[in-house]
Amino acid sequence: MFQFTTMGATPKHIVSSGIAKLDVLTGEDVLSLMQKEEFQLAWEALHDACPWGTAFQSYTYVATWYHVYRNVYQPILIRCTLAGKLIGLLALAQESNRLIVGAGGEQAEYQVWIARPEDEEEFVSAAFQEVVKQFPGTAIRLKYVPGGVSMSWATKSSFWRRHCLVRTVNQPLMVINADNLNDELRKKNRREKINRLKRLGRLNFERVDNAKRFNEVIDELTIQSDFRKGAMFNRTLFQEDPRRRQFLTLLFERGLLHTTLLTVDEKIIASNAGVTGKGWLHLQGLNTHCPTFAKYSPGILHFLFLGKQLAEEGITVFDLTPGTDPYKSILATEYGVAYQLDIVGGYSKFIRGFTMHMKRRVKSGAMAVGIRQETLRMLQKKVKQLQIRAGSGILFMFPDKVSRVHTVLVSDINFRNITAAVSLQYCSLKELMNYVPSKSGPTRWEFLEVAMRRLETGERCYTWSENSVLLGCAWVGVPAPALSEVHTEGGVIIELSYCHTSARVKLPMFLRAVAAQVQHEKPGPVYALVSTKDFPACSA
Q1: 352 FRET partner, CA 20 to 30 A, in 100, 103, 427, 484?
Q2: How far apart are the C-alpha atoms of 203 and 292, rounded to whole Å?
């Protein structure tokens, strides 16, 4: 036990085991301290000795993030020393909206203090008290606090009971066992998908172990990640935050980012780049799969191959991180516990706690009457899409496919010797993300969601962009039920799903260019399905 003295103040009591000094540093003072080698070594020694500290609390991770995001977040560091020895650290940062978060922001899956176990409760309580005192009226949020810490301090005093909101969440884990992973890969459905991929080309699992190779693939990985998250959650993280790519690159160079790929003939069909440390690999970082290979379940196969790789490297746990994604329940062998921690004003705690309680009641009530969790998730997504559409002044729904179509015979001549008048890309995720919403079209979220679903079900698209703006998109392989009312005399059907207003004059050239590509595989007449809106531009 010890008595704290904060910011150099004279302590009221001195106990036999000594005085612990608590310092709160901000901004440049934090960055300057972290340049000192003696402090770096003390941080890493404390981190190594802290049972619950994760890779996200290592000196290298925090220092890298503070450096990359120094113009976005204000660093806040609470340091505790006893007789000159570092015994506690809490690394935080303040956003522009004044919210205080754990160092690493949303990119640090786990945010927690590090300390000697015997000092933990006193340190964390005193540290947060000082933050509350120096940043009055500011909320503090730690994304996930890992299991193994003591959270009893949050209920021991009336002050913390009024201000702390703690929620327990499941932490799915894949404990690495090579025999179990081999058994999974030998299952009939897994073998069939692996064999089908091998028939497409050379299937290869690759551990990226040098910066040159990482720099060769990082752009493709960020595009695959942004496309999927844009379609599912309306978040294109790497487009919105260019620093994110720089941060991951630095983590890789500094040995904290474990990166693997699954490829078919050099085409990346799945990947994972996760933060690693203390014998664990954390899913946080980025993981991707190519939607055109979705029917082969490349993501699950990649994770199983990755598990075998981790066994060879002596990594004992693949942390799938908190969340209810269906694939996590497939891969998890056991579950740990983590916590979400909010420190807020008493009234804010009541409102937030009540909101969380009502959400849980609605969810449990829906499941009790047979509504699946996935259905609830889809309903929540549709509500959010309606809110975005209303905010953009777009108040009507858009179908997945072209409605009220006209059929246009593009040409029945052989196009193979004709040079395209526009530059086409085939199944380019990057170009699909160039879509710019208008008042008369779907939102970007809706557009990407439909595009991802069509790619996953086997349709293929040709796109045309200029100056990073999508001008045209046409699909091939439209399912037969969607064509039941379309009357053609044989041949191939392409569907024009999008044409930018500024590109209408070139629409016939775009359709002819697509037809030329289609005829390379199947000579004969090519028909285009176009909407009523686009029909006048291409009817000739």
Answers
A1: 103
A2: 15
